[in-house]
Amino acid sequence: MATKHVTVFNGDDASPEVMVPTVDILRSMDLDIQFSYPLIGAAAKAASGVLFPSAAKAAIDSADATFFGSTSGD
């Protein structure tokens, strides 16, 4: 089976409380999944000047799946 690529956005507020353990469970299953964590929101704005940089969109477009925790919109 080919490696699957999953883009993960942990989100804000309580979302990481769901997203982080979900990824941990998948990692513990030793599946052939590669996870990436592009920046969005406040962290992306601090790093690139925009809330949703083109690198984040490209990561979503190229992924087999995307886990997107809810965000406050900041």
- Main beta sheet strand tally, sense and closure: 3 strands, parallel
Give the SSE order as H and E letters: EHEHHE
Number of helices: 3
Rg for CA atoms: 13 Å
How much of the polypeptide forms β-strand, as a percent range?
Answer: 15-25%
Give the helix proportion (percent range): 40-55%
Please give the alpha-carbon distance between the first and last residues: 38 Å
SS elements, strand count: 3
- The 3D shape can be described as flat
- Poorly predicted regions are none
- With strands numbered from the N-terminus, the spatial order across the biggest sheet is 2-1-3
Strand pairing plus helix content: what structural class? alpha/beta
Tell me, rounded to a whole number, the average pLDDT: 92
Key phrases:
single chain, 74 residues, 19% strand
Please, could you describe this protein's structure?
The protein has 74 residues and is an alpha/beta fold. The protein has three helices and three strands. The protein has a three-stranded parallel β-sheet with strand order 2-1-3, with helices on both faces. It is flat and about 40 Å long. The mean pLDDT is 92.
